Amino acid sequence: MSTHGQGIVVLVSGGVDSSVLVHYVAREPGHGGIHAVSFNYGQRHSRELVCAAYQAKAAGAVEHKILDISFLGPLLREGSVLLAGGNAVPDLKDVPDRERTQPPTYVPNRNMMLLSMAAAYAEAHGMREVYYGAQAQDEYGYWDCTREFLERINAVLALNRKEAVQICAPFVDKSKAEIVGMGFELGVDFSHTWSCYRGEETACGTCPTCVERLNAFKAVGMEDPIEY
After folding, report:
1. Are 12 and 36 in contact (CB under 8 A)?
2. What are 144-156's pLDDT values in tens digits?
3. What is the pLDDT of residues 64-108, one digit of tens each?
4. pLDDT at 1 over 80
């Protein structure tokens, strides 16, 4: 945890992992204030951003910025089903095992771009740490949520000739179930989180992230409070 006292940046998407993360770091001493950052990157719906605002406030963030980078949607939608106008989101059961290391729900270079912007914001305001909710996915995987990615992006940021910003991912080796369990211990209101990749009124329960979320709640013996 930061000892600089200027504050820390926490990426908050409104999903389970980042919601637990912002409450987790809020309980740690010496952070100097949480500056929550969320992104509208052209995703299928804005519901998760409403949840992000709720969780940032609930965790006591000193500010919450929602950055509009929706121009990425038309630029990248051919490469990801998560973006508005892209191909339909598949059920997890329809994603072959061979594709689950980089499934169609992956957004090209998303985390590298978001973390670069967050690191620039942190550096400009004298903050030295950026937190994001990378975790060890149970059903599928993304290369930009791995320990190797974390180490390499920090190696690049360490080239800074003054004070380098560090990317921190305390959940990088944790399962979704472990994170959900931590969330209940921290008092996170999971009814104000959103995971479903389909931009509908209720969660579908069958897309990759819904399946992982439901399995995590089941693993810790708790009921998921959102509507399916």
Report:
1. yes
2. 999 999 999 999 9
3. 999 999 999 999 999 999 999 989 998 989 888 887 888 888 999
4. no
* 96-146 pLDDT per residue, tens: 888 788 888 899 999 999 999 999 999 999 999 999 999 998 667 899 999
User: What CA–CA distance (Å, rounded) separates 129 from 54?
Assistant: 22
Phi and psi, residue 75, nearest 5°: -70, -35
Encoded amino acid at 87, one letter: N
Instruction: Confirm if 224 and 194 have CB atoms less than 8 A apart.
Output: no
Residue 225 lies in a domain: no
On whether the CB atoms of residues 171 and 10 are closer than 8 A, the answer is: no
Flag whether pLDDT at 5 surpasses 80: no
Show the tokens assigned to 140. Answer: 């599928």
Stretch (H or E) spanning 214: helix 208-219
CA distances to 147, 158, 182, 224 from 174, in Å = 11, 25, 10, 19
* 64: three-class secondary structure by DSSP: strand
| CATH value at residue 25 | 3.40.50.620
Give the chain's domain count: 1
Q: Which domain holds residue 212?
A: 8-219
pTM: 0.94
